[in-house]
């Protein structure tokens, strides 16, 4: 649900503030966008 997206968004922001490897950042963005797409009615 939206609560999951909120929690994931916070987690993503925290990870984004660190110096993560680009491939990790990309896979996180991909998973986030896919989950957002699946949330659509």
SSE layout and pairing:
Elements: H1 2-16, H2 22-39
Describe this structure in words.
With 41 residues, this protein is mainly α. The chain has one domain (2-39). It is 80% helix and 0% strand. It has helices at 2-16, 22-39. It is flat, with a radius of gyration of 11 Å. It starts with a helix and ends with a helix. The model has no long low-confidence stretch (mean pLDDT 73).
- How big a fraction of the residues is strand? under 5%
> What string gives the helices and strands in order?
HH
Low-confidence blocks of residues: none
In total, how many domains does the architecture comprise?
1
Instruction: Give the proportion of residues in helices.
Output: over 70%
Q: State the separation between the terminal residues, measured CA to CA.
A: 11 Å
Question: Total number of β-strand segments?
Answer: 0
Rg (C-alpha, Å): 11 Å
Overall geometry: flat
Secondary-structure-derived class: mainly alpha
Question: Please, how many helices?
Answer: 2
Main sheet, how many strands, which sense, barrel?
none
Average pLDDT across residues?
73
Can you summarize this structure?
Helices cover 80% and strands 0% of the residues. The chain is mostly helical. It has one domain (2-39).
What descriptors fit this protein?
single chain, 41 residues, mainly alpha, 2 helices
